[in-house]
Automatic annotation (TrEMBL), chain A:
The lineage of its organism: Bacteria, Pseudomonadati, Pseudomonadota, Hydrogenophilia, Hydrogenophilales. The keyword Cell division applies. Residues 4-225 form the CobQ/CobB/MinD/ParA nucleotide binding domain. This is Septum site-determining protein MinD. Signal peptide: none annotated. It holds the Pfam family CbiA. The gene is minD.
UniProtKB/TrEMBL annotation, chain B:
It comes from the Bacteria. Transmembrane segments: none annotated. Gene3D superfamilies: Cell division topological specificity factor MinE. It comes from Tepidiphilus baoligensis. SUPFAM superfamilies: Cell division protein MinE topological specificity domain (SSF55229). This is Cell division topological specificity factor. Keywords: Cell cycle, Cell division. One of its GO terms (biological process) is cell division. Prevents the cell division inhibition by proteins MinC and MinD at internal division sites while permitting inhibition at polar sites. This ensures cell division at the proper site by restricting the formation of a division septum at the midpoint of the long axis of the cell. It holds the Pfam family MinE. Belongs to the MinE family. The keyword Cell division applies. The gene is minE.
């Protein structure tokens, strides 16, 4: 079983969108996948996954022994091999303990899960630390914007010092950079950091670039992970991300901008 | 765009400014993280142990501090030897 944390430091960059799409993508490939919301008190993964009305028990209930893991896991309505473990909406953010989280992860392993995707809360406090503690791999979600890049650098430092792998001196957490909300047009115009700039600054292998798109809002409006919105650039970009994560060679898409020709500009057209 | 900026070349693109600022701040924060002054008390104690082998010295006679100026770091160690011990050392 591999544990993948989706993290960023900064809020609002697309962690939950990415967790939902990425976990769905792994499950679509046939892997038995669980996605866990670590944002205790501000849960949102259930809404993004469209299962908010089916939440009975949550992660904290399981950690505190008030419910069994099998009772709290929600089966995804799109993909059979995907299960969601929602965060608690009412409990204190310190409700997650190291031992409790470890117990849940061991149990998931015993249940035969291939992947566990940990959706980290923003910040560098307890919830975020718990989300990355057991990670084998990390997807660092970054927007092409100064505060997000700086926070990603900070969270990379924390991965390298506070994960179990780091503490126990094992092989380090495998890091992946995912640039989201990318506008090739604005990059072309010199108004936005390019994915190459970000990679150069953070020095982490690039897993993919997700373009800024209206489709993400449509997806969250409906509670459907963005990877399911067939034909949208976001869905395709996330599918590519999953392929690359699984070791397939996929060229980057949606990163170049063609200036519309003069004729197009005069006569319109799409 | 005004005639002046056209004549004297375009203003620097904001993305380039962002990259430059990030390069500086990230480099600085890495330095802060690595050489955080929490090793200073240990350094001070070890220095004290070594120097005490040769010279009688009180803990408060050693001052260790890290100073930063732009991208230069200065580790400053001040050891004060009192009259009798300094004469013995010579």
């Amino acid at each position: 079983m591999r544990i993948v944390v989706v993290t960023s430091g900064k809020g609002g960059v697309g962690k939950t969108t990415t967790s939902a799409a990425f976990a769905s993508g792994l499950a679509l490939r046939g892997f038995k996948t669980a996605v866990i919301d670590f944002d205790v008190g501000l849960r949102n993964l259930d809404l993004i996954m469209g299962c908010e009305r089916r939440v009975v028990y949550d992660f904290v209930n399981v950690v505190q022994g008030e419910a069994k893991l099998t009772q709290a896991l929600i089966k995804d309505k799109h993909v059979d091999t995907l299960h969601i473990l929602p965060a608690s909406q009412t409990k204190d953010k310190d409700a997650l303990t190291e031992e409790g989280v470890e117990k849940v992860i061991k149990e998931l392993e015993a249940m035969g899960f291939d992947y566990v995707v940990c959706d980290s809360p923003a910040g560098i406090e307890r919830g975020a630390l718990m989300a990355l503690l057991f990670a084998d791999e990390a997807i660092v979600v970054t927007n092409p914007e100064v505060s997000s890049v700086r926070d990603s650098d900070r969270i990379l430092g924390i991965l390298q010092s506070k994960s179990r792998r780091a503490i126990e001196g094992r092989d380090p957490v495998k890091e992946h950079l995912l640039v989201t909300r990318y506008s090739a047009k604005r990059v072309e115009e010199g108004e936005m950091l390019s994915y190459k700039d970000i990679q150069e600054l953070l020095r982490v292998p690039l897993l993919g670039v997700i373009p800024e798109s209206d489709a993400v809002l449509h997806a969250s409006n409906q509670g459907v992970p963005a990877i399911h919105l067939k034909g949208t650039d976001v869905a395709e970009a996330y599918a590519d991300v999953v392929s690359r994560f699984l070791g397939e060679d996929k060229p980057l898409r949606f990163v170049s901008y063609e200036k519309p020709s003069l004729i197009k500009r005069i006569f319109g057209g799409t | 765009m005004s005639l002046l900026t056209r004549l004297f070349g375009e203003k620097k693109k904001t993305a380039a400014i962002a990259k430059e600022r990030l390069q500086l701040i990230i480099a600085r924060e890495h330095v802060d993280g690595k050489s955080s002054p929490d090793f200073l008390p240990a350094l001070q104690k070890e220095l004290l142990d070594v120097i005490s082998k040769y010279v009688k010295i009180a803990p408060e006679d050693i001052k260790v501090q890290l100073e930063r100026q732009d991208n230069l770091e200065i580790l400053e160690v001040n050891i004060i030897l009192n009259e009798t011990s300094s004469s013995r050392a010579q």
